[in-house]
Amino acid sequence: MSxxxxxxxxxxxxxxxxxxxAEAFLSALDDPARAAARHAFDDEPARRxxxxxxxxxxxxxxxxxxxxxxxxxxxxxxxxxxxxxYAQAMAVMALEEVxxxxxxxxxxxxxxxxxxxxxxxxxxxxxxxxxxxxxxxxVSMTVADDRVxxxxxxxxxxxxxxxxxxxxxxxxxxxEEDLARxxxxxxxxxxxxxxxxxxxxxxxxxxxxxxxAPDRLDPLGVPRGRLRPTGRALxxxxxxxxxxxxxxxxxxxxxxxxxxxxxxxxxxxPVEPGRRHYYRVQGEDLLIEYDNTTDDGNHAHTVLRRPxxxxxxxxLAAHHAAAHPPGPVSPGAPR
Length: 335
Description:
alpha+beta
């Protein structure tokens, strides 16, 4: 990402913060809860899990924990999110009570229906992971050799906007919509025609709950290189908005990784506010998706994914390469 906000190398305290918070969380649990929370690191189906709908899921639920353990769970989540993203996550969780009221309390939704799972032993293992997840919130972090791989990070909101007297009183994912609309407006007719890939938005984010995100979604939309300076700056700001869900050290590393690579922006659906719409940004090992397509455009999903690096695929590959380097090839040996 050229022209972004991050430069240079930042010392990363996040892995140790996560390790300490995960140990404190597990220590705060009683034996049955700890058994529910802990999973083997090589339990791939459980570790590579992504589910933002109200479903049963691996881990231990906040609703069954005492105040000390619940606070430890929140402190663990806070190690993975910036203050602003943590505030968004808290608003998303609180919306469960708002949605339950709107549904006449029929489904028993509640803000304690969020689950924490820890994979491996953060006190002893080089490779371990954790996840905090429930309806419209899924944050997965993988740690290998004290390096954090931060994806997927999903935030949704239903209702996306609650209004009173024509003004919003709750809109936790408003910046994600507003900045994309600002970019769309700045593209001009030519750029907008290249960016708008469909007259109707898809029913949901296309990566959905798959353990592996698509490497590429076509059409790509408009490339950053074709945009004018204002459009390029706004696209950079949009990517930075999603990277800023992470702590500064992780966001800086992700921005450095993207620096200089091409980005593409695509929009689907009408451009008028209040109608069902979708957009995505793609780059090298980057997929950002946003949709607001159900409940008449008042139910938003957003996700930050790394198709080649989700669930720690990148840091685990580096770890295994360092731990098991290829040996010398003997003369005459088959290659």
